[in-house]
Amino acid sequence: MSEGENSWIGLLEISPEQAEQFQRLAAALETTPSAILAHILRRILHFERDLKNHGLPGFRDWLIPDHDPPSEHRTTAGFSADAWVEVFGISLEEARMFARLAFELKLSPAAVIARVMAATVQQDGPFGGVRVTAMREWMTAPEILHRIAKFALRALPLRLRPSHFMWPADKAFPWSADDCMAAVIGYEVKWPGDFGEFSDLLRGKWEMSGGYAILHQT
What we know:
Layout: H1 7-11, H2 16-28, H3 33-53, H4 81-88, H5 92-104, H6 109-121, H7 129-135, H8 141-152, H9 177-184, E1 189-190, H10 195-201, E2 206-209, E3 212-215
Antiparallel strand pairs: 1-3, 2-3
């Protein structure tokens, strides 16, 4: 690869071995490491934005309690938003927003990306080059990228992560936090919305009985 194609390596806190693994992953998808990382970066931004759209706090309030990275993983002294724009093809606003989120995670932007990269290419993970190549048999490249990004988000030091189901951000959830807690510890809770929303939007092992929602626990 040319020096320009490898410019992403210089921005990140990764080993040569990690860089080589990620390059193999990108080759299996017939894309570039920068393109994959830009996709993951945007998914991280979307993750936090979606929390706030649902009325939940941002990343800072979801940090794992014992998350205390070494000081060298926190410094932003070498961060240049313009460099990230040039290397990853993101907007200046996205670069600055990502730097803010990294600060809330007590990490440098480079350390955040290094974490999600390590999660993506770890030897026992589901996204080694051979498996990605196999997935190309039945999935499109965008679908694989979506799954890679979702898996990578697990590396963030947070007490929550996205699941397959997300309640629509443009529709107010009808239960309070206390209602939700009561439901998951075994109580039947009155559902104030209509049955169509219950059956179509509230996924999982739920049933309705006399207007009360029941979560089946197995």
